[in-house]
Amino acid sequence: MAELPLLAITDDALALAQQLAAALVLPERARADAAHVAIAAVNGMAFLLTWNCKHLANGMLTDRIERVCRAANFEPPRIVTPEQLMEQS
User: Fold this and answer.
1) What is the distance in angstroms between the CA of the first residue and the CA of the last residue of the chain?
2) How many C-beta neighbours within 10 Å does residue 5 have?
3) What pLDDT is recorded for position 84?
4) Residue 83 DSSP label
5) Which string of DSSP letters, residue by residue, matches 12-75?
6) Max CA distance (Å), the chain
7) pLDDT at residue 24 in the model
8) What is the mean pLDDT of residues 45-74?
9) Which one, of 1, 4, 23, lies nearest residue 76 by Cα?
């Protein structure tokens, strides 16, 4: 893992994280979930791999996540669980 690059946490990512947290009505303890999506989107990641099905890999939230990212001029990552990613291979 030491060879993998770290994604930048920019002002754009922090602003998008706040917008996502508000749109998804996330509790304070789940605000990091919005940051994960925002950092991935701002850094142009195609996928965000997660086990978090409550706030991230949740089909009921997908439209809102995509809408907020695109309104901020970022393409949202495709949020998937490891199983879903392997199904697509």
Assistant:
1) 22
2) 6
3) 85
4) H
5) HHHHHHHHHHHHHT--GGGHHHHHHHHHHHHTT-SEEE-S-TTTTS-TTTHHHHHHHHHHTT-P
6) 35
7) 92
8) 91
9) 23
pTM listed for this prediction: 0.88
Specify the pLDDT at position 45. Answer: 96
Look at strands 47-49 and 78-80 and give their pairing: parallel
CA distance 80 to 53: 9
The tens digit of pLDDT for each residue in 19-59 reads 999 999 988 988 999 999 999 999 999 999 998 878 788 88
What's the one-letter identity of residue 47? F
Q: Is 10 helix (H, G, I), strand (E, B) or coil?
A: coil
CA-CA distance, 27 to 31, in Å (whole number)? 7
